[in-house]
Design goal:
Length: 162
């Protein structure tokens, strides 16, 4: 019986220490990986990024700008969140990298390459685009019908993925 009285407190101490260590590890991870938000007055976007927002999202206010450090060669970039919750990632020089609309809202396609606009009109007329990613390999579009379309850098259709 006396062994049981020694074992139970020992187990409780080990459990408490383990939970505290896990909680500390989780909090440190969150702090290290959170984006540093700055007030809009303290962040300047490149002129080309501002021009893009004014041209294609003219009536939507900028809600937040986050400055991110990227491990890639493009360096620092900005994530802009608009009042309708559209997210736009801009590269170091202000060129758009990704544009993502909130659920249920389609993106304007006027800034897409003309060949992609034509392909969408011919093959997915009436289906909205939720997001577009641009990389050195080409474009990836996610549609509201859960299809993913891939295009090369010139806007030529490559493949579809469900």
């Amino acid at each position: 019986m006396w062994k049981l009285l020694l074992v139970i407190p020992t187990c409780l101490i080990f459990c408490a220490c383990s939970n505290a260590a896990q909680s500390n590890r989780t909090n440190n991870f969150r702090e290290d990986n959170q984006l540093k938000s700055k007030p809009l007055e303290n962040v300047t976007l490149p002129d080309s990024a501002l021009a893009f927002i004014k041209a294609y999202f003219p009536n939507i206010q900028i809600l937040e700008v986050k400055v991110k450090k990227s491990p890639s060669a493009t360096g620092t970039f900005h994530e802009v969140i608009l009042a309708d919750r559209t997210e736009i990632d801009f590269g170091k020089l202000g060129n758009w990298i990704e544009v993502k609309a909130p659920d249920g809202i389609g993106l304007p396609t006027v800034f897409f390459p003309q060949s992609i606009q034509s392909y969408l009109k011919e093959n997915y007329n009436g289906t909205a685009v939720e997001s577009i990613d641009r990389s050195s390999k080409g474009y990836k579009l996610e549609l509201t019908n859960d299809n993913k379309l891939y295009f090369d850098t010139k806007g030529k259709f490559l493949r579809k993925k469900k």
